[in-house]
Amino acid sequence: MQDANAIDRIVKKLSSARSVTVLTGAGVSAASGVPTFRGKDGRWKSYRAESLATPEAFAENPQLVWEWYQWRRQLIANCEPKKAHEVLASWSRRFDDFTLITQNVDGLHERAGTGNVIRFHGSIWEVRCWSGCRDAPDRWLNEIIPFPEVPPHCPYCGGLLRPGVVWFGEGIDPEILERSFVAVTCDVFLAIGTSSRVHPAASLSNAAKAAGATTVEINLEPTPVSSQLNLSLEGAAETILEQIDQGLSKPNAFGKGI
User: Fold this and answer.
1) What is the CATH number of domain 1-34+81-121+172-258?
2) Across 79-86, average pLDDT
3) In this predicted structure, what is the pLDDT of residue 37?
4) What is the pTM of this model?
5) Is the previous residue joined to 200 through a cis bond, with omega within 30 degrees of 0?
6) CATH 3.40.50.1220 domain span(s) along the chain
């Protein structure tokens, strides 16, 4: 169990907070069975995820890349939101001003009912035309499992479709980036289940601290920003979030019950 003093400090800060922003990474979805990029499940048929999630990989072998995404979509479709997702969904209703920025593309936060979600890296349930045809939206929802053909083709121009996610080497949508950096101006900022190694998402924690937020990290192991934040707790996201939520739910907890 986490140090009770650390949990109490977070509960106290959250109890008086009006605006709360949360950044989540793969560690939040690990309990749901979603493989992570960097864990022991980060390999698929001997390929590293980082070598498949790139425009170059898709240009060279769209069949291989789509087989991997087909496998991931089928796996995620069978996953359910777990305690960490449920707690954060409840917080999105509890706090007056709540924003959840997620690096995850699995859609589990939305399925849990979380409000005001910013999809920093897009969604695995969206597709876009590889050729960028102008007769179609940039991205659109496509939850067909499995695709009748791999790689799938654009219904507008007949070219190839690609997943509606941000690949390594690609820039973040400027509007998404702006919304995220606006959201770090908050009372409390929590980075949960993220390695804090992939930029620009990794810079959000320090940006929040610079803006005056109380910054908290929850992760299985230390990250490059651990020593720079106000509090860093090591452990599973679902376990620690449940402890914090229990503290918030006490009617007399620092003067504010749920």
Assistant:
1) 3.40.50.1220
2) 97
3) 62
4) 0.92
5) yes
6) 1-34+81-121+172-258
